[in-house]
Design brief:
By secondary structure, this protein is an alpha/beta fold. Helix content is 30%, strand content 17%.
Length: 333
């Protein structure tokens, strides 16, 4: 069930003193992509300050519900039935993460799934910063055709043996991260580190117990819907009229249309909830009517960022937006 392997290696090159002292390269497989989905397997490769592998660890996790897209991850109800529950591996998992930067491909997803599992177990994951290898590849200007893990692996000549298996995905990412980290160190590149804020409480919607697994994409999956891994959340319509665009140095005003793009330290949906509670209109797309775009990566080239440039939409980062949320001007009624 659990594996541990230790290796030693040396690494050359003068190293930036501001870089982290260690990393935990993580991959988790899950029952789906929604907020109430569960982890069914997890792997961690611990790396030293220069990206050399120290050891690795892997475990299955019984999610106590349907395993979801078995045709993707290959983990059936029968396989998971004898696996430990998350709270039973939480301490060992935490020991692997403690004091290290969490590294993952699309790190916001892995971090949020881990944070939710620890909240369910009434604990906190000992992670304070994360690094997304997608963001790092952008900082390095790697000529990748897309942001898939397989493309990053191919760029560095890393051979993937078993896609969507947590241990192999973590191995592949660790092997691709090492040359990425070295390239960043040699080029004096700022690492795209983001703060991780653990959840302190969590409540799931009822989900079907493990054991009611269907056989493929057409079957029933309890809380899992193959056609929509991220069920839309319908908020009440904002009752305030749109007062127009945000102006630098002024307050936000109720009714302003706010859009979000890219990774955030606070879980995106929680950030959107705070905006809605303040009386702002949370927009899922960006148009000429959008008052403000919130993004930590204004140079990302996402469709929202590109449109913001085209339309002249004001852009602020998450920290600035958090400050603005503290003092939102009432709407003109």
């Amino acid at each position: 069930m659990l594996e541990d392997h230790t290796t030693t290696a040396s690494s050359p090159t003068e190293w930036p003193t501001a870089y982290p002292r260690g990393y935990a390269v993580v991959d988790v497989e899950t029952t789906g992509l929604a907020r109430d989905d569960r982890i069914i397997s997890a792997a961690v490769y611990r790396l030293d300050a220069r990206g050399e592998v120290e050891d690795h660890w892997y475990t299955l996790v019984n999610p106590q519900r349907d395993p979801g897209p078995v045709w993707i991850h290959g983990l059936t109800s029968d396989v998971l039935a004898g696996a430990p529950l998350f709270h039973e591996v939480a301490e060992e998992f935490a020991a692997r993460l403690d004091g290290r930067v969490l590294v993952a491909h699309n790190a916001v997803f892995d971090w949020q799934m881990i944070a939710r599992e620890y909240a369910r177990a009434e604990r906190e994951a000992p992670v304070r910063q994360r690094l997304c290898t997608i963001a790092l590849s952008k900082e390095l200007g790697l000529p990748l055709p897309n942001h898939k893990l397989e493309s990053l692996a191919a760029h560095f000549g890393v051979v993937q043996q078993r896609a969507h298996h947590a241990l192999d995905d973590a191995r592949v990412l660790a092997e691709a991260f090492r040359p990425s980290l070295r390239a960043a160190a040699e080029g004096g590149v700022r690492l795209p580190l983001l703060e991780c804020r653990p959840l302190t409480e969590w409540a799931d919607r009822p989900a079907s117990l493990i054991g009611r697994q269907a056989g493929g994409p057409g079957g029933g999956y309890g809380g899992y819907r193959p056609s929509s891994w991220r069920p839309s959340r319908k908020r009440p319509v904002c009752p305030h009229p749109n007062p127009g665009r945000y102006e630098d140095g002024r307050r936000l005003k109720q009714g302003m249309r706010v859009a979000f793009s890219g990774d955030t330290s606070v879980e995106r949906e929680l950030l959107e909830d705070r905006a809605a509670e303040a009386g702002l209109h949370v927009a899922t797309s960006l148009s000429r009517l959008t008052s403000l775009l919130v993004t930590n990566d204004p140079d990302s080239g996402t469709s929202k960022v590109v449109k913001a440039r085209q339309f002249g939409t004001p852009v602020v980062d998450e920290a600035a937006f958090g400050q603005l949320l503290r003092d939102v001007e009432p709407a003109d009624e």
